[in-house]
Amino acid sequence: MDTEKEDRAVEIKNISQPYNNIGFLEVAWEPLPRHPDMAGPEELPEVLEEDDLLGKSWTYRIKIKGASGLPVITDMAYVQYEFFGEEFVTETVEQNTHNPVFDYEFVHHVDVVTKEFIEFLKRPMEFHVFMSPLVQPPKDKVSTLNPVIVARMTGMPDPEGADASSSAAASIKKQLSMGQELAALQARNGELEEQVRQLQAALAEANRELAQYRDLTTPRTKTRIQEAQAKDAALNGGEPEVKDLALNGGEPDIEL
């Protein structure tokens, strides 16, 4: 038989003391003549006593509509239950409400009813509702930018209290403003330090290049270049020798 309407609301008990009622779970069972995916009779069998079930098939559809009257607003929730040794779980719903809706359905089918299964049906069935409460972040963050926190830490009058003077509140606000300015200056100082490091690296690279250029203009280097040019002229049979402008400090000197 279908579950009567007055029996569909199952009490949800707290798992800790005092184990009081904290809401309701709507659960209904609907008998079926057969499994929807299987061939079989179209009408429900007549059962007057529990022994009439022995050796026959048993098919019921369970419907878990939802929970209601929960003491906290849920962020996520799901239902878990066990049927004849097998565990079943609804989908996890993400709803910010005191009354999460599951709309869960499942067809439970037993091919051949045994005495063991009848004993299982006699025992009360437990449904476990799991939920994560919705946590709302506070509007005022706990930090030294909060005037109330500053007042409590420094011993100054609470700016939100009845005994707070306007001068005390102004002093706290000034301290907060100075703290914000200091944080901004420290951030800017870090940026400038990074720029200085980059400029120092560029200057060091420029000095290395300048040192290499200076090595080419020393007297010893000039002498080696002139000797190499003389040998080159001798090997090439008196070809014109062009002396480097930088080495002679004037116009190129061409010797024939």
Descriptive labels:
256 residues, alpha+beta, Immunoglobulin-like, 4-stranded antiparallel beta sheet, 3-stranded antiparallel beta sheet, 5 helices, 9 strands, elongated, disordered C terminus, coiled coil, C2_domain_sf, C2 domain-containing protein
Shape category: elongated
How many structural domains does the protein architecture include?
A: 2
CATH class of the largest domain: Mainly Beta
Radius of gyration equals: 45 Å
Mean pLDDT: 82
SS-derived structural category: alpha+beta
Which topology of the largest domain does CATH recognise? Immunoglobulin-like
* Helix-strand sequence: EEEEEEHEHHHEHE
How is this fold's topology laid out?
Blueprint: E1 9-13, E2 21-31, E3 58-68, E4 74-83, E5 86-89, E6 101-110, H1 115-122, E7 127-133, H2 147-154, H3 166-215, H4 219-235, E8 241-242, H5 245-248, E9 254-255
Antiparallel strand pairs: 1-2, 2-3, 3-6, 4-5, 4-7, 8-9
Please characterize this protein's 3D structure:
This protein is α+β, with helices and mostly antiparallel strands. The protein folds into two domains: about 10-135, Immunoglobulin-like; about 175-230. It is built from five helices and nine strands; from the N terminus they run E-E-E-E-E-E-H-E-H-H-H-E-H-E. It has a four-stranded antiparallel sheet, with no helix packed on it. A three-stranded antiparallel sheet has the order 5-4-7, with no helix packed on it. The chain has a two-stranded antiparallel sheet with strand order 8-9. The longest helix has about 50 residues, at about 165-215. The protein is elongated, with a radius of gyration of 45 Å. The N and C termini lie far apart (about 125 Å). The model is unreliable at about 240-250 and about 250-255 (pLDDT under 50). It comes from Heterosigma akashiwo. InterPro entries: C2_domain_sf. This is C2 domain-containing protein. Keywords: Coiled coil.
